[in-house]
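Dear H.,

Thanks for agreeing to be a second pair of eyes. The structure we're designing against is below in token form, covering all 303 positions.
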């Protein structure tokens, strides 16, 4: 009787998960296997795939050119994650320690800018960072003219280097810094929300206990608050690092031709060069790095 009941429960469970299982198999695993198979082929003369199995595409990835681009991608993704953590954790702590009636209002204010389309918000940063954008208009316009007026009123040697510096626009667009700014702006909520969830569940009476044991505020934070909210930090870091690693739109708009990431290489191989095997190989290398980051997250979470 118990065996029949357990079998019925298994069939019921299979029936409930079958739509999701069908969706994953048809739209995830099958395309993934197809891309994996293509990565071992060769590019045809006019594009397409020649089914000649080899490892040339993976060997080609280790060319210094692509390794340099991949290294830049790791650097930009890591810098984005660190900046999001440095900005997002204090913001999450501030929101979580406000009175309950204010928390939802602050979370709403955090999310309102992100109701706008991501592409539109990235274009907004393009208008801000380009040579004739908002920052450089102020730099070479208002600031330069203000310094010029001050130099006439107070003729001092200090004004000359400042005038020379503000005479030309800042190089903001087309740099790694512009990409990092765009990615931080795009993925900051993915850091704030997990940290907020962890801090909001934290029992602050433990901080009072630490202070009773003569711990100062810095020691209370480093030895009590941060370790017990580390799950939110790790989750937020993974949620920021992985999409930053595969970013394409932001580096394409803000990085220009000088600063590209591995996502741009994958796009160019599929859409411009028509080299599907090499694009598939690069995609799987990137996926392997993302998978490693996810496994580290789960292992850290268990610990």
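And this is the sequence the design step returned. I haven't edited it by hand at all.
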């Amino acid at each position: 009787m118990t065996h029949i009941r357990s079998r019925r429960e298994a069939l019921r469970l299979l029936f409930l998960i079958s739509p999701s299982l069908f969706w994953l198999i048809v739209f995830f695993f099958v395309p993934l296997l197809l891309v994996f198979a293509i990565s071992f082929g060769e590019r045809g003369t006019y594009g397409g795939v020649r089914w000649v199995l080899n490892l040339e595409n993976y060997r080609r990835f280790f060319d210094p050119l692509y390794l340099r681009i991949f290294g830049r991608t790791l650097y930009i993704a890591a810098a984005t994650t660190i900046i999001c953590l440095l900005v997002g954790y204090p913001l999450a702590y501030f929101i979580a320690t406000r009175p309950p009636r204010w928390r939802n209002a602050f979370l709403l204010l955090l999310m309102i800018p992100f109701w706008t389309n991501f592409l539109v918000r990235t274009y907004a940063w393009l208008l801000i960072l380009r040579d004739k954008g908002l920052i450089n208009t102020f730099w070479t316009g208002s600031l330069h003219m203000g310094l010029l007026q001050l130099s006439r009123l107070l003729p001092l040697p200090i004004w000359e280097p400042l005038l020379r510096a503000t005479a030309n626009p800042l190089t903001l667009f087309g740099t790694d810094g512009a990409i990092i700014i765009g990615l931080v702006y795009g993925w900051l909520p993915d850091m704030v929300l997990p940290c907020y969830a962890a801090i909001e569940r934290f029992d602050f009476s433990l901080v009072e206990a630490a202070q009773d044991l003569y711990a100062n505020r810095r020691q209370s934070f480093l030895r009590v608050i941060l370790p017990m909210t580390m799950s939110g930090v790790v989750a937020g870091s993974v949620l920021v690092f992985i999409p930053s690693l595969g970013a394409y739109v932001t580096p394409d708009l803000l990085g220009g031709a000088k600063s590209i990431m591995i996502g741009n290489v994958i796009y160019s191989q599929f859409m411009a060069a028509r080299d599907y095997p090499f694009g598939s190989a690069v995609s799987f290398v990137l996926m392997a790095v993302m998978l490693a980051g996810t496994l580290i997250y789960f292992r850290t979470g268990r610990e």
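Two observations from my side: The beta strands are 42-43, 49-50. Residues 63-130+172-302 form a domain with the MetI-like fold fold (CATH 1.10.3720.10).

Warmly,
E.
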